[in-house]
């Protein structure tokens, strides 16, 4: 019994020694980790939900298209006016040629309309001058018919008095009556001619007004 107890007492110090060593190693590791953690925190700043400040510029093109060449590298310093990318412009060039063709067509149509308008203006100007001359002639003829009518009416009235006095024959009176009626009809025709000439002149001037409106429209759209 004594021998066994002594053996157990002899082994107990070695067990405690291993336990103490493990504890010391663990403690030393903890101290080293804490020291590293404090050193790490002293060199770096840790912020929750942080953002890095930088200059970011968005690039865009006024016309759509595929990029055929990127002429800069990431992080490269660029300067004002420097080409950064090249866009494939084949579709744009095709559209541009189509628009140029449409523009040429519109310009040709505008030139045609302008020529037609100038011709119409010249014709209307000549027509207005002709209608003005026609109106002037109609007014002159009207004035002459008024003179003839007054004279014919005077002669007819005088012939009527002479017929009542038995100083002229019935045939003479009939002649004066026919002259008066003819002069009256002529006067009415001259009045109608003046009215027609005035209407034609107004129509020609109205057509000229429409031409001027069309001219302003062409000038605005040109």
Protein architecture, described:
With 222 residues, the protein is mainly alpha-helical. The chain has a domain at 116-221: Helix Hairpins. It has helices at residues 2-43, 90-164, 170-221, and strands at residues 67-70, 85-87. It has a two-stranded antiparallel sheet. Helix 2 (90-164) runs antiparallel to helix 3. The chain is rod-shaped. The protein starts with a helix and ends with a helix.
Features:
76% helix; mainly alpha; Helix Hairpins; two-stranded antiparallel ribbon; 222 residues; 2 strands
Topology pattern, helix = H, strand = E? HEEHH
Q: What is the percent of helical residues? A: over 70%
Unreliable stretches (pLDDT < 50, length at least 5) are none
User: What is the CATH architecture annotation of the domain at 116-221?
Assistant: Orthogonal Bundle
Percentage beta strand: under 5%
Please state the overall shape, judged from the principal axes of the Cα atoms.
Answer: rod-shaped
Rg of Cα set: 59 Å
Total of helices: 3
Largest sheet: 2 strands, antiparallel
